[in-house]
Amino acid sequence: MSQENEPARPPTGVGLEGLRTAAAGCRACELWEPATQTVFGEGPETARIVFVGEQPGDQEDRRGEPFVGPAGRLLDRALGDAGIDRRDAYITNAVKHFRFTPKGKRRIHQTPGPEHLRACRPWLESEFAVLQPEVVVCLGATAAKALISPSFRITKDRGQLLPWTPPGVAAAAVEPADDDEDAPHQTWMLATTHPSAILRTPDEARDAAYDALVADLTVVAHALA
Ligand code: URA
To answer: How far is the CA of 29 from the centre of ligand 1 (A)?
Structure first.
């Protein structure tokens, strides 16, 4: 994608299923071409919590669902240990096509560039606009830098609940009146390690890295309780 390419232009007023259908034909950047399919977010429209990863991996690209490969299995275990039911959450990615370099029969993950994040961002904004989440969890640096700040450091700033206004959601910064369920509410953001980073952690440090992820997710579980 060149700098001049336009970001995606999602339709409005179509709900998550309408967005998913539209995103299936997204050509806003070049990643669509070698990828198998768009991997849109998944979860109920009533979800109070949204998890944002980086981009689909090899298995997600083949199956068309986010976090269903090795990183997804680790995420599922950590969610269970923190007392969060994945079926209550909405899980998505900052970029919705798999970026990779072919190497023989393998496809090697490549981190998406700023141009891919920029092209894909309107889909994420549309997901937030429909879901109006109470808590957004960034899984890893790519999501945190895209949604919080380019200077965000997971190692330093992880595990803290920060007040946050989702891009694309207007004036979400006040608590709702008790009698107005549709009023905007405060959204919270928390960033934590990407599950793939835990899988890459050397054996001797992996349990501690996993426990730290569960501790961060427990903060989220308590915020939702
Ligand atoms: N890693 C991600 O960031 N997202 C997925 O969906 C799978 C692996």
So the answer is: 19
Give yes or no for residue 93 CB within 6 A of ligand 1: yes
Residues 6+ apart with CB under 8 A from 129: 166, 168, 169
- Four-residue CA torsion sign, 206, 211, 214, 216: negative
Q: 54 in ligand 1 pocket by Cβ < 6 Å?
A: yes
pLDDT digits (tens, 9 = 90+) for 154-189: 999 999 999 999 887 764 344 545 556 666 689 999
Cα of first residue to Cα of last residue in the chain, in angstroms, is 43
Atom of ligand 1 nearest to the CA of 69: 7
Q: How far apart are CA 91 and CA 70, in angstroms?
A: 15
User: Which domains does the chain carry?
Assistant: 25-224 (3.40.470.10)
Instruction: Indicate which atom in ligand 1 lies nearest the CA of residue 91.
Output: 6
Q: What is the dihedral of CA 47, 51, 52, 53, to 10 degrees?
A: -140
Q: Are strands 100-103 and 89-93 parallel, antiparallel or unpaired?
A: unpaired
195 lines ligand 1 (CB under 6 A): no
Mean pLDDT by 10 residues, the chain (225 residues): 76 97 98 98 98 98 98 98 97 98 95 96 97 97 94 94 84 50 82 98 98 98 95
Q: 28 alpha carbon to ligand 1 midpoint, in Å?
A: 20
Place of tokens 């979800």: 47
